[in-house]
Write a structure and sequence with these properties.
- The protein is 41% helix and 12% strand.
- It is an alpha+beta fold.
- It has two domains: 98 residues, 2-Layer Sandwich (Phosphorylase Kinase, domain 1); 323 residues, Alpha-Beta Complex (Aminoglycoside 3'-phosphotransferase, Chain: A, domain 2).
- The longest helix has 23 residues.
- The radius of gyration is 21 Å and the shape is globular.
Length: 434
């Protein structure tokens, strides 16, 4: 039974001695019922967020979040151009653990609604670049997971093996993924501090100088040293804005060049379908298995003829040439990587839904009623949808093998994109406040 906002707010006085609660209200996080959450008004004028797990797995996630937030010392936070929640206190509530953090203002936007152009998209790229530039010692000192490219690659191998063992996945997809995992060039990257799977819901926006900017970052429970591509895989659900996010990210990242970060991000996004299938077999749920098979079939059709791995080996000059496809903006302008059992079947069913721009995917796979009735069992922070229809459109419109559309660097077009970005966010915020 869900705890009421008043019950959660009452626990604040145990977590924060010498404060009084003068108001409380519900706070929806879109976590598929895995947490009970409320926002409380304190007598000193502060607003805080109170969270308690609604199921055992959520308790482990909340504990991981606490460890991650403790690693974000004032010095670390000073290196970031955005805010992260500050851990204020903890308390017991029955047999559960209640965590209190400060409330971060701002609004969140679905991946499909993230507009292109300078502003929202470029701010997301800059925010992720700054996160990935943090010293590795921040994670190591706190004893959080540290994973090498070799370990991550082995995880992918094991997942592909599990999918193959079902005997139900399309052979062309298995071959596609196997080519990627066995290509050495694919795994030549430098590990970095990552969230371990950021999503569109991780970013909080506010208007800054009349443009949307990332001012807060949520969901720190997967903080670790790992593959930066895991924090970019959600961009498969934001095909309109993805190019600008990647450009800003490449322009601000401080690590060694990573020519295939976008391809690995796509691989991880596609493997969410594979994990959904494996999960169905693990829990012996025919409805999940059939749902996953339908998603995999549509994915297979959407990426047919595409390859994640560039032809031939990639030397230094080849890497520079590949990185050159990501144009810099004009000067005027927990171990969760591959080992999670948290899924949201409702979100997965939307990955292949009708394209909002007027096109439609080759196949839309509905989530059956049995899976819908169990939607609360799974987290909705798993990798965002792959826009299969956009993979198809790009392959016929002259896009490169990475799924990147040709870009014409014209100043007027950039300004128009910026205006469109602001207009889209104004419409979004207006509709959200009604």
């Amino acid at each position: 039974m869900a705890r009421s906002p008043l019950t959660l707010a009452a626990s604040v006085t145990s977590a924060l001695p010498r404060v009084g609660v003068v108001g409380a209200g519900a706070l929806t996080e879109g976590a598929a019922g895995r947490f009970d959450t409320a926002v409380a008004e304190l007598d000193d004028g502060r607003r805080v967020v109170v969270r308690a797990p609604a199921e055992p797995d959520a308790a482990n996630e909340l504990a991981a979040e606490v460890r991650a937030l403790r690693a974000l010392t004032p010095g670390v936070r000073g290196l970031l151009p955005f805010r992260a929640p500050e851990l204020l206190g903890e308390a017991g509530l029955g047999d559960a653990r209640v965590v209190v953090v400060d409330f971060l203002p701002g609004y969140r936007v679905d991946a499909a609604h993230l507009p292109p152009g300078r502003g929202a998209a470029t701010s997301v790229g800059e925010a992720l670049a700054s996160l990935h530039a943090l010293p590795l010692s921040i994670v190591k000192t706190e004893g959080l997971p540290v994973r090498t490219p070799g370990q991550i690659r082995d995880d992918v191998r094991r997942l592909i093996h599990s999918v193959r063992a079902t005997g139900r996945a399309p052979a062309t997809l298995l071959d596609r993924w196997t080519r990627a995992v066995e290509a050495d060039v694919f795994w030549r990257f430098e590990s970095a501090v990552v969230l371990g799977g950021a999503g569109a819901a991780s970013f909080l926006f506010e208007e800054v100088d009349e443009a949307p900017r990332v001012t807060g970052l949520l969901e720190w429970h997967g903080l670790q040293v790992g593959d930066p591509a895991t924090d970019l895989q959600w961009l498969a659900a934001a095909p309109v804005a993805a190019d600008d996010v990647y450009r800003a990210y490449a322009a601000h990242v401080s690590r060694a060049p990573d020519a295939l970060v976008r391809e690995r991000a796509r691989l991880y996004a596609e493997l969410e379908f594979a994990k959904w299938l494996v999960h169905g077999y693990e829990v012996d749920r025919d409805d999940i298995i059939e749902d996953a098979l339908g998603l995999l079939a549509s994915l297979d059709e959407g990426v047919r003829g595409d390859d994640l791995v560039p032809d031939g080996d990639l030397d230094v000059e080849g890497a520079i040439a590949l990185l050159g496809r990501v144009r810099e903006p004009s000067p005027s302008s927990v171990d969760t990587s591959m080992q999670t059992d948290a899924y949201d079947p409702e979100e997965l069913s939307l990955w292949l839904a009708t394209d909002e721009t007027g096109g439609s995917a080759e196949a839309e796979v509905p989530l059956d009623e049995a899976a819908q009735s169990h939607a609360g069992l799974f987290d909705d922070t798993s990798t965002a949808p792959i826009a299969v229809v956009d993979f198809q459109r790009q392959s016929t419109a002259g896009g490169d093998a990475s799924g990147t559309l040709p870009v014409t660097p014209i100043e007027d077009e950039e300004r128009e994109a910026e205006r469109a970005s602001r207009a889209a966010f104004q419409r979004w915020t207006s509709s959200s406040s009604e």
